Amino acid sequence: MRGNKAVAVMRGNGLAPHLNGMVWLCDTPRGVCINARINGLPASETGFYGFHIHERGVCSPAGFSGAGGHYNPGGTPHPLHAGDLPMLMADGCGGARLCFVTPRFKVRDVIGRSIIIHGGYDDYTSQPGGDAGPRIGCGVIKGV
Fold first, then answer.
1. Average pLDDT score over the chain
2. Distance from CA of residue 112 to its chain's centroid?
3. pTM (two decimals)
């Protein structure tokens, strides 16, 4: 069935020039399974990085501001946006792996949007986006 699988090829900007990786999305009976494999994360104070789906599939300009805010069709506060995802946690070599299921959307709802990695941790409190720091990684979600 078209629209039930997608992928985002992640790349970094000047704040994380070595950042790269893939994020796969697949509809399941319990929600969307998201599987992320990221490399080249820069050192951080905590080792945690905000990880969100943003409104637009635009990974420009250099700060990735073209991606807009968090994907939030319900108009809910952070961290209840549909695009609010668990944080990435880096290993000691700048790599992160994350796999989880979310019932907040279907794959078809996010194709054409972007996944953003932030340079700091998401406090899950601050509005509108968790005070997760600058955008350091971006990938456009494309159906497969």
1. 94
2. 13
3. 0.94
Query: Residue 96 sits in which domain range?
Result: 5-143
- Active site includes 135? yes
Q: Which of 18, 27, 78, 108 is catalytic?
A: 78
From 84, 104, 113, 122, the catalytic residue: 84
How, if at all, do strands 31-39 and 96-102 pair? antiparallel
Burial tier of 45 (Cβ tally within 10 Å: 0-12, 13-18, 19+): exposed
Mind listing the pLDDT tens digit for each residue in 72-126? 999 999 999 999 999 999 998 999 999 999 999 999 999 999 999 999 999 999 9
Consecutive H or E run containing 83: none
What is the number of domains present in the chain? 1
Q: Give residue 113's pLDDT.
A: 98
Specify the CATH number for the domain of residue 37.
2.60.40.200
| Identified catalytic residue from 54, 104, 113, 122 | 54
- Structure token pair of residue 1: 């069935």
Is residue 118 annotated as part of the catalytic site, yes or no? yes
Span 58-65, average pLDDT: 92
Residue 78 falls in the annotated catalytic set: yes
